[in-house]
Every structure is written in C-alpha cells, then in structure tokens.
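Input.
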Amino acid sequence: MSTKDEPIIVSGQQKSLSAIILVGLIILIAAAICVAQTTQKKPTRKKRAAHSTFACPDAEAQQACKSYAELLKVKDTSLPSNAYVCFRRSADEFFLISFSQPLFRKKWDPDARQMMVDTEYMPVGRGYGRTYKNGIEDSSAIPSLFFSGQWTPNSPFQQDDGIFSSDKINSTKSDENDRTVGVSIEESQVNVAYKFKNRFEKTILYTLTIQRSTGRFSESYYDEASKIPFSESAGYCVHHTEGAARSEP
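Output.
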C-alpha cells in the first residue's frame, strides 16, 4: 500500500473520533440538564392550619369563639392537646377542662385463656380547668382548678373504658363527709363540683356538667348553705384534640 494514502486514512480516523467525542459530550450535557430538572425541588403545598377546622358551636357565643380562634391561630401553648372547650354566651369568655386518659394494665386470665384488663389496677389520673376572659387566661375566674384521682376500669374486656373519681382538688384532699364536691368522668359525662371563696370571703359551690356526646354544658353557683343556685348558665363545648377542634356530634 502506498504511503501517500496513510495521512488521508489517519485524518479520516481523527475526524471520526472527534465526532464521537462531540456526540458523547452532547449526551453528557443533556443528561446533566435532565438530572438537574428532576432533582429540582417541587414547591410544597402549605398545610392548612389546625385552627381552620374550628367552627363556633353556638351562634350566641361569637365573641368567645373569636378569642379562642385567635389563640388557635397563633398555636398558643396554654391550649392543651386534649380538652373540652366551652363558650359562654353574650360574653368574651370561655373555659376548658382537660384530663389524662386512662392507661389500664392487662394480665393473663387462665380461665378465659386470654389477656384481660386488670380490674384491680387503678391508674392515677389528673386534670385541670382554666378560664379565659377577653382572650387572656384569668386564674381568678371560675372554673380554675387542678384535680387528681384514680381511674377504675368498667370491664375486664374493655381497654379504654373506665370511670374517674377525684381524691384531691386544688391540693385539698376530698372530704368523705362532703359528697357535693368532686370531679367524676365517665363515658357520657364530665362532672365538676368544688368550693371557692369569692371576693367577700363567702364560700361558693360551683358545679359543671358536660354532656360528652353533644358538647352541651350547664353550670351553676350556690351559696354554701343553699340548695338553690343563685346563678345558672348553659352553652356548648368543642372537643379540642392535637391542635384542632371539633364539635361533638
């Protein structure tokens, strides 16, 4: 073969190699662009704030509902994760009752041959009530209390069903001879009754009942020696859970 043709062959090979390299570079650049586009963060949708689920349960309690909604909006830390929030009518006032849930223990029942709720074990329960006026927590307003006691299981077959009875309110032990005072919680109702002194140092009995299924509440004030209330009111509550609030069905 003539040596005169060799430069021509070499030159053709170099051109082919350059074309291959160029195509490879184009492919690499295109792939890099695709990767960059696919890894680009997509805009995340803003989650709805928990307070958006709140609906005032009582048309006559709009002022109180508005103050509660403001606290929800800013995620006020004084609002517990689980409470009944009750709104007073024709006033910028609401109060809440919060309590711990029972944690019943199970044990092996040799007769039933299965794990059952230990009905002899009564776990400690605690709770409190607090009141807000004009959107501000007011410890001098009623109800304002702390309570503790025990949960008693209703049945060895039901893990979450029980009855709570207080043995202490505001650091004062319950008086066995005074049945008018105490906190009881069961599946259908929350009942609160305790005594306080008003600004005239007069002892007043306050009672509250919340019907858990409907969210309705009633509250009364009595002179210590009287069986007839000198003040009564009623309204509706919502069940505040984990930063949200829902009206009871």
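The helical segments are 6-39, 62-73.
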